[in-house]
Amino acid sequence: MSLNVTVVSTDQAVWSGEAKRVVAKTTEGEIGILPGHEPVLALVAGGQVRIVTAEGDHITAAAEGGFLSVENDRVTVVADKASLL
C-alpha cells in the first residue's frame, strides 16, 4: 500500500507522487500519515512536510499556511507558500 501525495502552493505544483509516509506540522501538532490513515482535515502551521517516497527517497518541502487533507490514501497539502528544500 502507498499514499498518493500532492503538495501545492497558490502559484505552483511543488511535488506529487507515491509515498510510504508523510509527516507535517499542523496547528494541533505534528501528524504522521501512513497508508490506511483515517480521514483528516487540518490547518498547516508552517514548517516542513517530510515525505518518504515509495522508493525510499526523502523529500522535504517548506509549507506556510493552508491545509492538509487525508482521505482514501490520498494526501493533499495546499499551502499559501510552499517550495522544496
Automatic annotation (TrEMBL):
<feature type="domain" description="ATP synthase F1 complex delta/epsilon subunit N-terminal">
    <location>
        <begin position="3"/>
        <end position="82"/>
    </location>
</feature>
<keyword id="KW-0375">Hydrogen ion transport</keyword>
<keyword id="KW-1003">Cell membrane</keyword>
<keyword id="KW-0813">Transport</keyword>
<protein>
    <recommendedName>
        <fullName>ATP synthase epsilon chain</fullName>
    </recommendedName>
</protein>
<comment type="subunit">
    <text>F-type ATPases have 2 components, CF(1) - the catalytic core - and CF(0) - the membrane proton channel. CF(1) has five subunits: alpha(3), beta(3), gamma(1), delta(1), epsilon(1). CF(0) has three main subunits: a, b and c.</text>
</comment>
<dbReference type="InterPro" id="IPR036771">
    <property type="entry name" value="ATPsynth_dsu/esu_N"/>
</dbReference>
<keyword id="KW-0406">Ion transport</keyword>
<dbReference type="Pfam" id="PF02823">
    <property type="entry name" value="ATP-synt_DE_N"/>
</dbReference>
<dbReference type="InterPro" id="IPR001469">
    <property type="entry name" value="ATP_synth_F1_dsu/esu"/>
</dbReference>
<keyword id="KW-0066">ATP synthesis</keyword>
<comment type="similarity">
    <text>Belongs to the ATPase epsilon chain family.</text>
</comment>
<dbReference type="InterPro" id="IPR020546">
    <property type="entry name" value="ATP_synth_F1_dsu/esu_N"/>
</dbReference>
<keyword id="KW-0139">CF(1)</keyword>
<keyword id="KW-0472">Membrane</keyword>
<comment type="function">
    <text>Produces ATP from ADP in the presence of a proton gradient across the membrane.</text>
</comment>
